[in-house]
Amino acid sequence: MSGVGPIEPGEGTTPRDTPDSLDVEGTSRGSGHREGSPLARLLATHRRAVLAAATAVLLLAGGGYLYATRPHESQPAAAAPPFPSQVVDVTYLGGHAVPPGTRPRTFAFDVLLGVESGPAVTVTRVSQPYDGLSLTSAPPTPFRTRAGSAREIVITMHVTECGKVPRNAGLPFLDVTLRNARAIQVHSYILGPRYAQDLSEALQVACSNDSR
Amino acid sequence: MRQRSLIAITAALSAGALTLTACGSRDSGGDKGSDSGGTVVTIGVDAPLTGDLSALGLGIKNSVDLAANTANKQKFVEGVTFKIVAKDDQAQPSAGQQNATALVADKSVLGVVGPLNSSVAESMQKVFDDAKLVEVSPANTNPALTQGTDWAKTKKRPYTSYFRTATTDAIQGPFAAQYVYNDAKKKKVFVIDDKKTYGAGLAATFTAEFKKLGGKVVGTQHINPDAKDFSAVATEVKNSGADVVYYGGEYPQAGPLSKQIKDAGAKIPLVGGDGIYAEDFIKLAGSGASGDLATSVGAPVEDLPSAKEFVANYKAANYKEDYAAYGGYSYDSAWSIIEAVKKVVDDNGGKLPDDARAKVTAAVQNVSFDGVTGKVSFDEFGDATNKQLTVYAVENGAWKAVKSGTYSG
Known about the structure:
- With 212 residues, chain A is α+β, with helices and mostly antiparallel strands.
- Chain A contains four helices and eight strands, in the order αααββββββββα.
- The relative contact order of chain A is 0.13.
- Chain A has two domains: 15-74, no CATH class; 84-211, Immunoglobulin-like (Sandwich).
- Chain A is 23% helix and 28% strand.
- Chain B is of the alpha/beta class and 409 residues long.
- Chain B folds into two domains: 39-167 and 303-378, Response regulator (Rossmann fold, 3-Layer(aba) Sandwich); 170-297 and 390-407, Rossmann fold, CATH 3.40.50.
- Chain B is 43% helix and 20% strand.
- Chain B contains 13 helices and 14 strands.
- In chain B, the strands form three sheets. Chain B has a seven-stranded mixed beta sheet, with helices on both faces.
- In chain B, helix 8 crosses helix 9 (251-263), helix 9 packs parallel to helix 10 (279-285) and helix 12 (327-347) crosses helix 13 (356-365).
- At the A-B interface, helix 3, strand 1, strand 8 and helix 4 of A face helix 1, helix 6, helix 7 and strand 14 of B.
- Chain B: It holds the Pfam family Peripla_BP_6.
- Chain B: This is Branched chain amino acid ABC transporter substrate-binding protein.
């Protein structure tokens, strides 16, 4: 406007007219490099491209920083599978008739074992806590159950010593050893009053004088 | 060209500014959340915030605070901002009743979390029920609170406004008995309680099951909850020939009792319920506590994937006190009220109805959500449907989980 020409070079003009617009090593030291450095010449020749690239790098760096330091809560779950005891349900279904010819003092129950979520769970052992009672399961352990499915298990018990079984425990349970990709756990499943009553009745019958 | 340069520089500066902004706005977890709107709903908290049991009470208060802040931050209920009002009952029934009356008088209170002690709950239940104000306890375990005094024979719910997320002593006592008799192989027990609703009730459910299993009760005694000198009882235990002591009560007495029993020469474990499952028990009981046992409600937090976020957020919030034994249950108790408020507001066109308290109480009965402690819902008595328990043992000066169980009856 003042007749000294455009403050900024026009399209296609070289940046040699404005050598200080970039503070690049070798351009501001006042040596002969200002005009002669290949890097400076490259920058001077491709000023717009360099600016655009620098902006892109900054934006990418900013974005990268934002991504890398985003709040932890928004990160996808670390995907550690749940502990098996937290996804397995064991519920009591009822008594199960033992086949004719089964040895005396033997009785059986049906329970339902379900896996709610996570990886498949393998049952490696089913037991009960009383010294005078032995236990087997069908299917026999180990058996595997996938998430979202449940399987019926027949628990067969045999009284080995009547003096070592409680006849009327209020809260009997089964100890079930569970294994999945996360852990192996022994968990007690307290099957409730109906199981307590059925177990108690079965023990009374098994250990009555008539059955000896 | 200048314009282009300016655009480029502006873009670069913007990126930097965004970066800095991100640094500044990093979620601290400790902020108080943002307002969700104009209506303020207060969640009352009643717990012992001072005195011997304050370690548990403050964990309850902080966890409810975290739930309210989380709901506000998430704008979980559009147009509603939650706040908490915490009252100290000092573990005294009379103070609890006064607090209940004060909370009822505050019309912004639509639900209360607490108390810690079953004896305190007994004094509060009717006050809340008369006002149709819902109460959700994270810690009460006495069965009578939900199932009536004759619960062992006929269950009858006394108050429809009372709920709890903790498992009851109808399960906790027998579970402990099973562990002591079958796993720890202890056959002769000396039973002591503090004569309070919780302690005496828990001792009774333990004793009944221990006897059914074939165990022998070689002595019983009661202690005064205000006492610290239990040397006479300790001598009695020593002379009884017991191989285990069961104590129904809380850690301020259980710790010294355990120590004095060992000092008297009876090197036998003391077993108790959730009332002694606290770090302070180990401090009070000293090095002789190794091998002492406690049952507590729920599974160990580290076993619960659902608790991971709670633990992280609690830590980030920088509360002074630990969330302690009932933190997860307190958060879930508060969240059941928050869920109920949401349901009531949603059903009423986005606003609270005039009879909000009654409607929130009714809605709590039907809540169902994935909480810190697993699935949260209530049965017809107001008891939690999720009933898990864990046996802990003192090992190397800390509680260590040794067995967990789930009630599915």
